[in-house]
Amino acid sequence: MNGYVGTATSRVDGRAKVTGAAKYAGEFAADGLLHGFVVTATIPRGRITRLDASGALKVKGVVDVLTHAHRHPLADKDEAWKDEVAPEKGSPFRPLYDDSIKFNDQPIALVVAEDWETAKFAATLLDVAYQEEPFATDLEAERGSATEVQKPHEPRGDAAAALAGAAIRHEADYLVPTEHHNPMELYATTAVWEVDRLTVYDKTQGVQNVQKFLCSVFGKTPDEIRVISPYVGGAFGSGLRPQYQVVLATLAALQLKRSVRIVLTRHQMYGLGYRPETIEHVGLGARPDGTLDAVVHEAIAVTSRYEEFSRNDTGWAEQLYKSANSRYSHQLVRLDVATPCDMRAPGAASGVWALECAMDELANALKLDPVELRLKCYSDRDQSEDLPYTSKQLRACYRQAAAAFGWSNRNPAPRSMRDGKELVGWGMATGIWEALQMPVAARIVLTANGHAEVSSAASDIGTGTYTIVAQVAADALGLPMDNITVKLADSSLPQAPVEGGSWMAASSAHAVLAAAEDIRQELARLAVAMAGSPLAGTDPADVILSEGMIAVGSDKSRSVSIADAMRSGSLERIEKEKLNHFAEDKSHARNTHSAVFAEVKIDEELGVIRVTRVVNAVAAGRILNTKTGRSQVMGSVVWGIGMALHEEAVMDHRFGRIMNANIAEYHIPVNADIHDIDVIFVDEQDEHINKLGIKGLGEIGIVGVPAAIANAVYHATGRRVRRFPITLDKLLS
Amino acid sequence: MINFQYSCASDVTEAIGLLAAHSGAKLIAGGTNLIDLMKESVEKPTRLIDISRLPLRQIEETGDGGLHIGALVPNSDLAYHPLIEERYPLLASAILAGASAQLRNMASVGGNLMQRTRCAYFYDTATPCNKRTPGSGCSAVDGLNRNHAILGTSAFCIATNPSDMSVALAALDAVVHIAGPSGERTMGMREFHRLPGDTPHVDTNLERSEIITAIELPPRGFAGNYSYLKIRDRVSYAFAIVSVAAALEFDGHAIRKARLALGGVAHKPWCSVEAEAALQGQPATTDHFARAADLLLQGARTYAHNGFKVELARRAVMRTLTQAANASPQSQAHKKIA
């Protein structure tokens, strides 16, 4: 199979997106559409004692005000509220369920009106009173209440003793602040009501997850609720779980028997999930030659009082660095905040930052080059299970990135390099993520004119799923890409889980491949059986689909057209649906890897930091599309720059409120902050992981970037900042 | 958003009359700040008086060699006007350091002077704020105050004025032309904005029924030796942590005239005649720049999270004066600090 896969193919949905033809959840229309505006709590914990909507209801155009005391029935069992991504332990949040306030900016009412402006105005007229209760939102103040919830890996040896006895020891805390996803598209749902069913256009990473969730919350059957999400303007993990606006829009539609649209405000987006503030404690013990004897990594992270959200922040050294002794633990502090959720490279973006910063500090203590230390400790096996990797081209990542960056010209001494008034710093770090794959089904409908429609409930959250599905289908069916139509993200299409974890490329590609194989077999059977066929007598297994023809693999001149073969069987269309299948393999570890090198220039007097160069060499198996793949990694690098230098949701713990809940004050990089970004895809052929050797790119691009920048800042200034974001005041003080 | 009445004024007199007649009314020109504040329920005008069609869009030379700038000239038109670029490049530079191209296209000169603080507590109606709700208390004094003022603060308010343009106008000693029910008057730019005192809800010395009609720039434009340096947390689209407008005129090696103004540190553009006087007649040396910076920052008072601002401001003043003296002003297009 070759042709489109592996090439720099433009997005098939690019034109629709830039011309506005692509419709997003908040853009679908319906007859008599109503608009809902969400009213949110202004305290972090307590009870609603008064919620008087009479003033709002008097406004012309207001249809109703939904509250916990005035609403259509909602399921009362926790199980009904657990979507497929919900934490195992806990009781999921239920909007407008009762009078309790669990976090600030929690929805407490929905004003529904004939137009959005009226709903928003009427929302200001609600009379709300609370009985406030004592609350806590400060992780560092509540650190003592942390409880262990998870050991990512069993301890090996005695890490504490080995650390205590190490010749060279480094121990420190690293702090990751609360970070919010801030996708460009606001969370939105348009619930289109009909007598016997609802069509729900929702911003989500998984339409079937939302469908199942709504069915269980509202006691409906799958044929009564259909969820569609053709385009998503960024989600980055925030759309894995159904968000409260989809519940409220569905609730209002069922209660009022009208179609309802809800679009959250930017401020309200800060009341959804987020990357939890986390204290990462790392301890490394080494011999003078750089051999690691002890790795200790403990994370203390925020969760809500009502759910236990945790991810693997701490286990990554187990894959990366050989050490005879190791211990990892994850602890949670329960606070009066909303439950955190996955955010690009959850666990790794934060945990690997701490680990890779600590490795840099250890290299300094050992007077070893940071790359040399990592090569010295390089692990060819996943130590937790003692398994080899399906593939691991991390050494090549270091080599190629270092060469492209010019690392050999680095003066190792901090504050030794400068450019005029600016101190120059060069830093590096390793990145790692998992190569996951999930059950996904695809349907292909081939028509006699040589066109194929490929469909699956899988989402494209801007990652390029539409495009890679078309590429894989075109190659597998031997058709030009123009002949392929892709339909995604409709709950009525073949099964798919949420899009996340970097698993959708491998999972969807192999679903398409499986369905295409069934098409090939059917066409081969028809072609071989045709009267006077040039393929007569050929083993159907030797028949290939190529250049629009059905041909003998060893002699492509012996071929028939798809149209002729289908006509011979009196077929107008061939439809095949298939679930992907991955051979079970417990004898390998599966990961993607990267090496990130960064240059910073820092005004010595003023502390202003510029990230002038980043080289990110990624080994992630076969890259399906080098254009969308490169864009995905570049975007990740930009985010990594933001994580290191800009991003922080700042909470005033006296009020338990985020005080910069908008994108003017919650900083992410702007264009002028971004300079050269060089993405290298390191050749990595993986014959074990799956048929096409795909590993996925969604997460790996960000991991390691924040640490490389933090390490470069240290090299430039001699100052180690262990608390993100690295703002200029931290360099001046 | 709230409901409001709308009037469109056809001349200045009518605008003043409408303001006088409706106590809850506000003027709207570009709306880049007011509309945001209305969406957040911070500003709740009962009536908007649209002045965008008033004939206040001219930039004209005055008899004495200065410039008269109509209050409705968009910020971007002003920044790119040939006479501004040639004779008042400090003003052009400060404008281009602010906001985004889209906002500068909409925002008027008069509106820029009237924009309100970006203090997070002022914007969040769920928290106390004396500027928004007099008497409710200041959340910033003991709260998140990393971006807050270090000069001219009071126990009632430590908010800063967010404008870049105003900092340059203060340095240039511009004059604000005002029309009101009792006629026209002028006010120096350095007197236009107020310190918070015990009335932080009052930002400026404009009377309630008055309207800004123009800004007048004096003949001295400091086109040879100037710089506007804005220090912020990302290199564009962020408010100043500290900004400095510096303008020098030389007589040989001696400084004949010096002008300095700070942004991001006070409730108004911060100036000190003592600091300027200390430079006059002196050579452009680091020692004299340091002395001027110290005088400018005299009386600085810091809070829990903004202690770094004093030293940062001091260094920024010295750097900006150096840029001005070397005739190598900070570029707003190339973000590397010169």
TrEMBL record, chain A:
Species name: Bradyrhizobium manausense
Top-level taxon of the source organism: Bacteria
Membrane-spanning intervals of the chain: none
Protein name listed in UniProt: Aldehyde oxidase
A molecular-function term among this protein's GO annotations: iron ion binding
SUPFAM superfamilies recorded: CO dehydrogenase molybdoprotein N-domain-like, Molybdenum cofactor-binding domain
InterPro entries: Ald_Oxase/Xan_DH_a/b, Ald_Oxase/Xan_DH_a/b_sf, Ald_Oxase/xanthine_DH-like, AldOxase/xan_DH_MoCoBD1, AldOxase/xan_DH_MoCoBD2, AldOxase/xan_DH_Mopterin-bd_sf
Residue stretches making up the Aldehyde oxidase/xanthine dehydrogenase a/b hammerhead domain: 19-134
TrEMBL record, chain B:
InterPro entries hit by this protein: CO_DH_flav_C, CO_DH_flav_C_dom_sf, Diverse_Substr_Oxidored, FAD-bd_PCMH, FAD-bd_PCMH-like_sf, FAD-bd_PCMH_sub1, FAD-bd_PCMH_sub2, Mopterin_DH_FAD-bd
Protein's UniProt keywords contain Flavoprotein: yes
Keyword presence, Flavoprotein: yes
Pfam families linked to this entry: CO_deh_flav_C, FAD_binding_5
Ranges for domain FAD-binding PCMH-type: 1-222
Key words of the record: FAD, Flavoprotein
Molecular-function annotations in GO: FAD binding; oxidoreductase activity
UniProt protein name: FAD-binding molybdopterin dehydrogenase
